[in-house]
Every structure is written in structure tokens, then in C-alpha cells.
Amino acid sequence: MADHDHTIDTGKGTFSLEDLGPLMPGMAEIMPLVGSRIWKCYYAGKAHNRQLAAFQLKEAVNLMEKGAFLRPKYVDNMHKFIEEEVADVKKAIDNEDWDGFEPAFAAMVDAANAYHDVYDKSYLRWKVPDAPPPDLDMTPRG
Ligand code: HEM
């Protein structure tokens, strides 16, 4: 054992550093957050709000990278997805190509669901909710 232990004190109790690993979020915790960002990205794009759509997509990518870091079995496919389908959506947003945004977005969602199939989760078919997220104004500013 090391000459000092690594005890984490939450203020309500303590646990050891090794116990942190299993407490880190996995895909079951991270993916719903990705879904929420992608939902916002879609409606921001529909509102032609480049800044907000780009921000939401970037935050979704950060979450996907975190998921792949914590669950390395997804790393190759996650990076392929980010470099291919997600990159096409990013390009449409950056170029404010709102006609190209729709098909690129649909292709990204299809690919995401195809990856769910790859991991034997074909019952997880993500879709864009019918209404914009109620907690964020989609109107572009300046
Ligand atoms: C637009 C991109 C994506 C969206 C919006 C999305 C959305 C979601 C959502 C909402 C869930 C959780 C469903 C639930 O528990 O109710 C989920 C689960 C999952 N997703 Fe994704 N996903 C995306 C891309 C991907 C990619 C690229 C991969 C793999 C390379 C992936 C792998 C998984 C896995 C493995 C689960 C199951 C997690 C578990 O064990 O509970 N997803 N996804």
C-alpha cells in the first residue's frame, strides 16, 4: 500500500480513490445528454441560428468523446461517426447551408441508430422530438 491513502471526503461520507472508477458515468448516463444536445442543435439549425446550433453540436461531441474515453470499446466507431456524419452537419452549420443541414442531419440520426444496432440496441431508435426544446430561445441574436 502507498504510504498515504487516497480517501475522498464528500462532506457526507468518504470513499477511496479506487471506488471512483465504477462511479464514472457510462453510456447509459451520457447518451441521454447527447440526445438533448442534438435535439437543441436541430431546432437551432431550423431557426437558422448558427451560433447556437454549432454550440450544441460541439457540446454533443464533447459528451460523445467523454463516453468513448470512459468506455473504450466504443472509441473507433465513435470517432468514425464524429469524423463522418457529424462533420457533415458541422460543415452545413458553419456554412449556414440550411438546405444542406436537413439531409445531413437526417443522415447523422440514421447513422447513430445504425450504431445502436451494432451494439445490439436496435430497440433504441432515437428521433428528433416533434417540438423545439422548451427551455431555450432559438431566435438568432446579432
Ligand atoms: C446523434 C447521435 C446519437 C444520439 C442522439 C444518441 C442517443 C441515444 C440515447 C437517447 C440513448 C439512451 C436511450 C435510453 O436509455 O433511453 C442512447 C443509448 C446508447 N447509444 Fe446512442 N446516440 C447517438 C450516437 C451513438 C453512437 C455514435 C454510438 C456508438 C458509437 C452510440 C451508442 C449507444 C449505446 C451503446 C447506448 C446504450 C447505452 C446503455 O447501455 O444504456 N450512440 N443513445
Verbal overview:
With 142 residues, the chain is mostly helical. It has a domain at 25-118: Four Helix Bundle (Hemerythrin (Met), subunit A), CATH 1.20.120. Helix content is 61%, strand content 4%. The chain has helices spanning 20-23, 27-46, 50-70, 75-94, 98-118; strands at residues 7-9, 14-16. The protein has a two-stranded antiparallel sheet with strand order 1-2. A hairpin with a 4-residue loop joins strand 1 (7-9) and strand 2. The termini are far apart. The mean pLDDT is 96.
**How big a fraction of the residues is strand?**
under 5%
Q: Numbering strands along the chain, what is their spatial order in the largest sheet?
A: 1-2
Q: Assign the structural class, choosing from mainly alpha, mainly beta, alpha/beta, alpha+beta, or little secondary structure.
A: mainly alpha
How big is the Rg?
18 Å
Bound molecules: protoporphyrin IX containing FE
Q: What is the end-to-end distance?
A: 59 Å
Number of helical regions: 5
CATH second-level architecture of the domain at 25-118: Up-down Bundle
Number of strands: 2
Q: Outline, from the CA principal axes?
A: globular
Provide the CATH top-level class of the domain at 25-118.
Mainly Alpha
Average pLDDT number: 96
Run of helices and strands: EEHHHHH
Which percent bin holds the helix content?
A: 55-70%
Uncertain runs with pLDDT below 50, 5 residues or more? none
